[in-house]
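> forwarded from #structure-qc
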């Protein structure tokens, strides 16, 4: 059974920071791109960031660029999302995902359709 389990969400004041983790089990994803998406209440799930198989290449949505950092530890089969300078617009359920596809060593897709495994999500709430 493949599982992606997010943790680290919670309530934080605007300007604060949170660090999310996504631990995978049931399958090793050390050769796969992974990413983070988020879904605010009443909104579509949107791309946040992605990281290639070895952590050497990342993609970020414009809304989080410069504030969020995506990293991974393949020895732990885990990816991380460091979120800084949080604002209320960052409030959402955050999901991690893993992609089975591969189109090159820098593959870090932003399309939801390219991800095949999803976590259950963790709530991040930023108060003003």
């Amino acid at each position: 059974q493949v599982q992606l389990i997010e943790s680290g969400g919670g309530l934080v004041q605007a300007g604060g920071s949170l660090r999310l983790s996504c631990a995978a089990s049931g399958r090793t994803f050390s050769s796969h791109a992974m990413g983070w998406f988020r879904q605010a209440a009443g909104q579509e799930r949107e791309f946040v960031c992605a990281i290639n198989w070895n952590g050497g290449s990342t993609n970020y949505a414009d809304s989080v660029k410069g504030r969020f950092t995506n990293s991974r530890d393949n020895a732990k089969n885990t990816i991380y999302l460091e979120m800084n300078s949080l604002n209320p617009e960052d409030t959402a359920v955050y999901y991690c995902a893993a992609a089975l596809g591969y189109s090159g060593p820098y593959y870090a897709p932003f399309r939801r359709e390219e991800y095949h495994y999803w976590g259950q999500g963790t709530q991040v709430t930023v108060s003003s």
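QC bot note: The chain has no helices and eleven strands. The radius of gyration is 14 Å.
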